[in-house]
Amino acid sequence: MIIENAQAALPRYCPASDKRTIMMDSDLLVATFVDLADTMVADFDVIDFLHMLTSRSVELLAVSAAGVVLADPRGELRVAAASSEAAGVVELFQIQNDQGPCLECFRTARPVAADLNSPDQRWPRFAESATRAGFRSVHALPMRLRHEVIGALNLFGSGPGPFGPEDLRVGQALADVATIGLLQERSVRRSETAAEQLQAALTSRVIIEQAKGKLAERLSIDMERAFTMLRDYARASNQRITDVARNFVDSAAADFPPSPR
Amino acid sequence: MPDGRHTVLWGLVVARAARHGRPASAGDVCEVAVTSARVSGGWVTVAGGPGPDFLMHVTDPVSEWLADLQLTLGEGPCHDVQISEGLALGSDLGDAQSGRRWPVFAPAAVQRGARAVFAFPLTIGSIRVGVMGLYRDSAGPLPAAQLRDCLLLADTATVLLIEAGSHGVEEAGGGDGAGLPGQSANLALHRAEIDQATGMLTVQLGATAAEAFARLRAYAYAQDRRLADVARDIVARRLRLPPDSPADGDH
């Protein structure tokens, strides 16, 4: 498993433990929720939205990495969006299929925290990998639809200790906004509509991964940079990332951005 | 867990194919899906390049009629999954929501005795090889366990069709898709590295995503390695697959 140096690939935040007790920057908090609400207009891009939400979660909660992990109806956990596309971080979300806070969060429908400094670890294999990647604390906050858990907001911190009550409240609000964005306004009264939309988000993710691979190989860049290029081009040309990615993978030419037709 | 269930379903597909004395095909998968999901019938349409999809397999006359109607109308759950990324689950074609969504198809299907239609795209990301449709003569959603089985079976049918296609064989099942039984029984398809590696291979091989994916699987099989491990090596740029070496995939 290649989890070394995942931390090195991440933006540097210094979530000193004393910061936890300081009031959260309320301007940033307001700006974040206003931005997220602004994004949720008609035909918005779910993947761009979820990616933005994970990036904002990193800033607001002073963690190092955040991911939206969804429960595939096939019975596995899959990443729909992550603040970091670094391979080691994505791996950490994935290995929770076997054990870890995310799996526990799905089973219990409750927030789960893991302090990786503690000598007594409930999920030793997961803790070892996360520690090796440089993380000290992990949170999984449930994305709930009525009584069902459709996913979790998974947060990795390089500072010690679990969230205080305020961080937890903000984190849970972000998880709830992720749920709303994912399932959109359409009558989610029917659980099968939720299943359709979950599957669409997961398929979009696969399309984007394929496009990242093609672009990374074409330009000899890393996956993180490839994602940013796809997203920036999608925004600039007012398209969904998924559509940009699909057109790029489908085209016989490997040019990006695609030459205008 | 999911792996175990996948193995069980793959066993049913292989057993059915063996009874007919031929390699497993997407048609066998469809038959298993009908039984497993406890529905009335099903069909598989296959994307035939730039032209319209063609009907590859049906289990009964009503299924054939439903599949044809959707291809003709350009409307219905199967049409929806062709133009979107998701599933289309029409659990009650008689209700108002279905009436709005499929104004021509839904009432026609109900009149013919189909109260629910479920469409599963046969896709891996941007690779689209077809659609598996199921219908039931009574309304009601697919329970979670049946939905899971259908998604796992759709993955299986997708891989069989990709591999049949990558060997230049017209109809699925004629290829040697069933030549990779160990792999098919342990798909673990949904790993970011596999998708990224597929994208990288399209450039390395000058191939379509479907061809790149087939080559990736063939290589893993020939080397007796897990698909995810080979994909990780490609993503880490420790491994490149050369173009024009079909020997990898021959067995």
Query: Mean pLDDT across all residues of chain A, rounded?
Result: 84
Give the biggest sheet of chain B: 5 strands, antiparallel
Structural class of chain A: alpha+beta
Uncertain runs of chain A are: 1-21
Helix content of chain B: 40-55%
**Helix/strand class of chain B:** alpha+beta
N-C termini distance of chain A: 43 Å
Low-confidence stretches of chain B: 168-179
Would you list the SSEs of chain A in sequence order as H and E? HHEEHHEHEEHHHH
| Count of beta strands of chain B | 5
With strands numbered from the N-terminus, the spatial order across the biggest sheet of chain A is: 2-1-5-4-3
Q: What proportion of the residues of chain A form beta strands (DSSP E)?
A: 5-15%
Could you estimate the helical fraction of the residues of chain A in percent?
A: 40-55%
User: Tell me about the biggest sheet of chain A?
Assistant: 5 strands, antiparallel
User: Could you report the average pLDDT of chain B, rounded to the nearest whole number?
Assistant: 87
Shape of chain A: globular
The side-by-side strand order for the widest beta sheet of chain B comes to 2-1-5-4-3
State the helix count of chain B.
11
What's the N-to-C terminus distance of chain B? 31 Å
Give the topology, please:
The complex is a heterodimer of chains A (261) and B (251).
Chain A: H1 26-39, H2 46-60, E1 65-72, E2 76-82, H3 87-94, H4 101-108, E3 112-115, H5 124-132, E4 137-145, E5 148-157, H6 165-183, H7 191-219, H8 223-236, H9 241-250
Antiparallel strand pairs in A: 1-2, 1-5, 3-4, 4-5
Chain B: H1 2-19, H2 26-36, E1 41-46, E2 54-58, H3 61-73, H4 77-83, E3 88-90, H5 96-101, H6 105-111, E4 116-124, E5 127-136, H7 144-166, H8 181-184, H9 192-205, H10 209-223, H11 227-235
Antiparallel strand pairs in B: 1-2, 1-5, 3-4, 4-5
